[in-house]
Amino acid sequence: MKTAQRFSLALLFSSFIFSAASAQESPEMQFGVGMSTSSQFDAIHAAYAVTPAIHIGAQFGASSTMTTTEGSSDESNTGLTFAPYVKGLFFGLPSFKPFVEVQYAYTNTNTTVGSNTTSQPINTLWGSFGAEYFINRYIGLFGKFRAVSIDLTSVRENNGDQTKVSSFGILDTSVGIEWFF
Description:
Blueprint: H1 2-22, E1 30-38, E2 42-49, E3 54-67, E4 75-89, E5 96-113, E6 116-134, E7 139-151, E8 155-156, E9 162-163, E10 166-180
Antiparallel strand pairs: 1-2, 1-10, 2-3, 3-4, 4-5, 5-6, 6-7, 7-10, 8-9
């Protein structure tokens, strides 16, 4: 029995040593590209790792929805988003880094109801929390959830009212991959 315990302890210790030796730090002074998907839009992004703890970049996304209601006109919405961001990575395991991200998002939306189309720009400030796992110094897999969304411009509703909305909670989740070179 003691032999099995010692073997298990040795196996656990060696796997810890191996994982620590093979763990990767986040990139530093490198450019990167990536892609992500969420419930709101799919995006590509360009990034620059200023330090292992600070990354800056910009996301470019697109969304499209179609709503069909019986007895009324179909409604379609399309949006293009440009969202520069700053991401602060915290200390964690060498290859697994929790982070916070702040993004300013500019979205141009087009809404078509029947034959009428309206276009509206929307400016929003987003705050997200997440974590990134660096497979090696060049490739990272990340997941995040948007916890804060603050509208900076009034949104015109279908009834003509204008509203600004601030939201808190788990608003959107996304996963993605990025490659630094």
